[in-house]
Amino acid sequence: MKPKISLLTAAWLVLRKDWMIEWRTRARLTALIFFSLSTLLLFSFAMGPDINALRAHAAGYLWLALFFASVLSLGESFRVEGENQALLGLVLTPVEARAIFLGKVFGNASLLFGLSLVLLPVAVALYDIDLAKAPLALLATLFLGSVGISAPGIVYSAISSNARARDVMLPLLLFPVLVPLLLATVNATKFCLGPDPQEQLASWLKLLCAFDLIYLSLGFLVFPKVVEED
Amino acid sequence: MKRFVFVAALWAGLAFADIAPVPPPAPAPAAVHPEGIENVPTGVIQGGWGYVYACYIVAIGGTIFYALSLFARRPRGSPGKSGPQS
Amino acid sequence: MPKWAPLISLVLVIALMIVHAASASARAWVWKVLAGFGAIGVVVVVYFGLFFAPREAYMSDVGRIIYVHIPFVWMCMVGFTVNVVCAVGYLFKANWKLDALAEASAEVGIFFGACGVTMGSIWARPTWGVWWDWDPRLISTTVMLLVYVGYLAFRSFTEDPDRRAAWSAAGVILGYVTLPITWFSVQWWNSLHQRQSDSQTVDPAMRVGYLFSTVAFLALFFVFVFKRYEISRSRQSSALELPPLQAPAVKPEVSA
Fold first, then answer.
1. Which of A91, B40, B45, B51 has the greatest number of C-beta atoms within 10 Å?
2. How many domains are there within chain B?
3. Quick check: is B55 in a domain?
């Protein structure tokens, strides 16, 4: 059956549905925020009171907190669809599975992006970083990184949601794939927050864009095979 | 007062001693490598056969080990057919 | 070692593989021939590498590790590439043989990769002074192996064979991106690990050695994949040919 509405409209509807679910289960969202806040706190406790060392590694802590939070949010993203077989219902609507992929990726990415915006002031307080140096590039890094986590993350979350031991399986599958992304985001954030004498920021941002494009297109291609039962 | 002048003179003398010309250092002894010149590395790694043997043992031992593990897991029973048709 | 040895043996090995693929009756013996060739080839490689080969210009005798390090990592990459080709093929047309071949090649690839990384680590000690270093080549290779370990773990944690095949195929296509990263990492970031060697940078006497070694291990690779494939096939048949689920004759007792 041919889809009645365009791909982007359908993706937008799925995205709105995800936002609505997030809004209606605000308690979960709050728990996610406090989880990542406590991760940031734990890093600052574990690494001791040396403020210079904390400032130098702030980008790494920030992104690790986001990575850990992303495992929770990605797992939730398909757990709620598992209730009452909502995913099956979604797949049975005359909507391409690819629209579901796009909608869910950007739903999750917007969640992570919002989370990172909440974490930034806390990072300023804990690690004494300076956000005003390159604010636009910093926002771009955070957004591209969120999309980069979500694009392979949604595929792996859909895959692992029905496996045994899915809570272990998702990070096991996802984290190795995300290593290049982690390098790119941490370095880009570091150069946004601190001195960038060799002007490397642009090349890391370019790597981030490439990562996002590769995984968005690969996920776009394989996602229908993941959710459609034949 | 006498004591004060004495202390001031001593202090001034010490201060001037700092800018007084330093005698040139004694000429350094001829350069001798602490381990002897014949032991200075030439840039080419010497020896290291232990590492080479370790690598070859990993390669051959690993291959034999994996072959044995495949043998231990070999399918038993009903040898004629293997697997469902596509 | 004569200059033509790698090429002749490569042609021979590939011809045998084609015979194996084309003729069902040849399948009983071709792998034995290849296993024999591989075993003899490995003995030749050990003799050549340890006693016959010339010393490397800077690494001297330590450079002899090249004759086992390169073939293992190459076979790892060949295995993962076979795997991803099978995965893409499976997503186009579901076929249990492709699924079994994907599983087999991933496991054999992990074996070769793990041995290759171990050898690289041993080699790093005398040449770089450390067992392990923050080097893009090392990190990306390890990450690639981890992706495939995750792939096999995922396969063993999913019961439904249809879903396992389709989902692991989809997942591993995303994971395969790590392989080009590994291959090009030495060109993108100039670091400790050297770039790929080519005929300009390697003496022909050494090049012949590691090319022949690659062909010998390719024969063994093929035998391993074939035997592992048979194991996968027999597991599939036992999983798929079960009688349909029926109500148990005796109801399980419900404990209070």
1. B51
2. 1
3. yes
At position A123, the amino acid (one-letter code) is A
Give pLDDT < 70 ranges for chain A: 1-4, 229-230
Which chains share 3+ C-beta pairs under 8 angstroms with B?
C
Judged against a pLDDT cut of 70, whether residue B79 lies above it is answered with no
Helix (H) or strand (E) holding B4: helix B2-19
- The answer to whether residue B66 sits within a structural domain is yes
Which pLDDT band, with edges at 50, 70 and 90, does C144 fall under?
A: very high
pLDDT at C247: 47
Look at C62 and B51 and tell me if their CB atoms are within 8 Å.
yes
* Residue B54, domain member (yes or no): yes
pLDDT tens digits for range C184-228? 888 777 667 777 776 677 777 788 888 999 999 999 999 999 999
With contact defined as 3+ CB pairs under 8 Å, the chains touching A are C
- State the sign of the Cα–Cα–Cα–Cα dihedral A75, A77, A78, A79: positive
Q: What are phi and psi of C56, to 5 degrees?
A: -75, 150
Q: Which of B52, B58, B82 sits opposite C61 (nearest CB)?
A: B52
Tell me how far apart the alpha carbons of residues A10 and B81 are, in angstroms, rounded to a whole number: 48
Least confident stretch, A39-43, B13-17, C44-48, C98-102: B13-17
**Domain boundaries, given as residue ranges, for chain C:** 5-232
For position C35, what pLDDT does the model report? Answer: 93
Rounded to an integer, what distance in angstroms lies between the CA atom of residue C101 and that of residue C85? Answer: 10
| Chain C residues within 8 A of B81 when measuring between CB atoms | 237
User: Exposed, middle or buried by CB within 10 Å (0-12, 13-18, 19+), for A66?
Assistant: buried
Please state whether at least 3 CB pairs lie below 8 Å between chains A and C.
yes
Give the closest of C163, C166, C178 to A177, CB-based.
C178
Name the C residues in 29-58 with CB < 8 Å from any B CB. 42, 46, 49-50, 57-58
- Contact list in C for residue B43 (CB cut-off 8 A) is 58
pLDDT band at C242 (very low <50, low <70, confident <90, very high): low
B64 is in which domain, residue-wise? Answer: 50-74
Q: How far is CA A33 from CA A37, A150, B25, B58, in A?
A: 6, 17, 67, 48
3-state secondary structure (DSSP) of residue C56:
strand
**Which residue spans within chain C are E strands per DSSP?**
none
pLDDT of residue A149: 94
Tens digits of residue pLDDT in C35-75 = 999 999 999 988 888 887 777 767 777 788 888 999 999 99
Structure tokens, C60: 């001297």
